[in-house]
Amino acid sequence: MADIPKLYGPYGSAAIAYAEQFPAYGVNAAWFHMFDESAFDACAQAGIAACVEFKIFRADFAQHPDLIPIGVDGQPIRYGRLVQGVCLSKQWFLDYTEENLLAGVRAYQPAGIWLDYLAGAGWFEEPEPDLQEHCFCPGCIADFCDTTGIDAATPAEILDRHQAAWTRHKCERIARFGAHYAQIIRSHLPGCLIGAYMCPWTPDEFGGALTRIFAQDYALLAPSIDIFTPLIYVTKSGRSPAWARAVLEAAPNFVPAGHPVQLILDALDFPASLHETVASVIPSHGLQMFSGAEIFRDPAKAAIFAATLEKMQRNS
Ligand SMILES: [Zn+2]
Questions:
Q1: pLDDT tens-digit map of 98-130
Q2: pLDDT over 90 for what percent of the chain?
Q3: Is CATH 3.20.20.80 what the domain over 8-66+101-125+173-315 is classified as, yes or no?
Q4: 273-305 pLDDT per residue, tens
């Protein structure tokens, strides 16, 4: 863990407008969506680490309905505006994702790449999330049967008789993709940090949905991922600010040793969740602030952020 730098900064391209102020606030990094040339330039000028959030399994379902995973009833799953996850048997989409990653790592030298939506389908930033088992398209069922040697043809048969194997298979499938993308990054950019945005739930919450629905198994992902970033969006998820601290303190129960946890907080919850993060017995290894521009466009908030970062950096 010693060689994984502690990076502190905002997430979101709108925050980049304030990049030249960052060093004065103790901010040493910024995260932004995909390989954004102007964001790289601004980070270089400010002397801070440029980190890319790279979209893995997320697509516009209205434009590409073939990517919508199939639910237990044989129909495309229900979804809202912010759904993540796709059917993993659509080779054109997998090729497209890989080409985008390759183009980025060939053209830029980010300090880190955080894989986003390296997960099964659904949406977890909700007080009462709509969790649906998936994907039961013919391709995904065949992949399950071929990989596990289990002979099962229907969603009911799979869930009634092979739930544990099905969940395990889905987690291993996501982890294999994670390993493949990590290998692409490491072969082009040795030294580039690899992070993953995570469903913030413990393995027991919502009936094991972390693995059963989102197919994110920390132990399986650990060989590929240097640092894990659970999304602590308190207001959106209907939680209390103490959730930030609770997640950090529970993490050693399910995150493999040697893999630091770095929270991403939401500016909407500022500063309460930040204060709870600082109060945690187990520190966050650096910090991201989603919608960080909200903090930096208000000098009073920026001053609170800077003072709190200073405290975090002193304690850790
Ligand atoms: Zn499928």
A1: 999 999 999 999 999 999 999 999 999 999 999
A2: 97
A3: yes
A4: 999 999 999 999 999 999 999 999 999 999 999
Residue 177 Rama label (left phi>0; alpha psi -120 to 50; beta): alpha
Task: Give residue 71 CA to ligand 1 midpoint distance, Å.
Answer: 9
Secondary structure element (H or E) that encloses residue 194, with its range: strand 193-198
In this structure, are residues 20 and 48 in contact, taking their beta carbons and an 8 Å threshold? no
Which distant-in-sequence residues (6+ apart) come within 8 Å of 80 by Cβ? 123, 130
Q: How far apart are CA 238 and CA 215, in angstroms?
A: 23
Task: Output the pTM of the full model.
Answer: 0.97
CA of 133 to the centre of ligand 1 (A): 11
Distance of CA 67 from the midpoint of ligand 1 (Å): 8
DSSP classification of residue 165: H
Q: Which amino acid is at 201?
A: W
**Mean pLDDT value of segment 200-210:** 97
Ligand 1 centre from 76 Cα, in Å? 10
Is the model's pLDDT at 314 over the cut of 90? no
- How close is the Cα of 82 to the center of ligand 1, in Å? 19
Return the domain boundaries, the chain. 8-66+101-125+173-315
